[in-house]
Amino acid sequence: MRKRDGVGTVPGGRKERPARRPRPAPGAPRFARPLTPASVLGWTALSAVAPGAAHLRAGRRRTGLILISVYAVLLLAALAFGLTRNRSDAAAFVGDGMMLAVIIAASALALAWFAIVVSSYVVLSPKRLNQQGQILTGVVVGVMCVAVMAPFAFVAETMATFRGTVKDIFPSSSDPGTPTVAHNPEDPWAGKTRVNFLLIGGDAAGNRTGVRTDSMNVASIDIKTGNTVLFSLPRNLQHVHFPASSPLHKQFPNGYMAELPNGGLLNEVWQYANDNPQIMGGRNMGPRALMDAIGYTLGLKIDYYALINMYGFAALVDAIGGLKVHVESDVKWGGLYGTAGTIKAGYRRLSGEEALWYGRSRVNSDDFSRMSRQRCVIGAFAQQATPQVILSNFRKIAGATKRMAQTNIPQPLLPPIMELAVKVKDAKITSLQFVPPEFYSGRPDWVKIRQATKKAISDSLRPARRAQTANVTASPSGTAPSASPTQTQAAAPTQTPTRNTQKAGAKSLDELCGL
Question: What is the per-residue pLDDT for 497?
Answer without folding.
Answer: 43
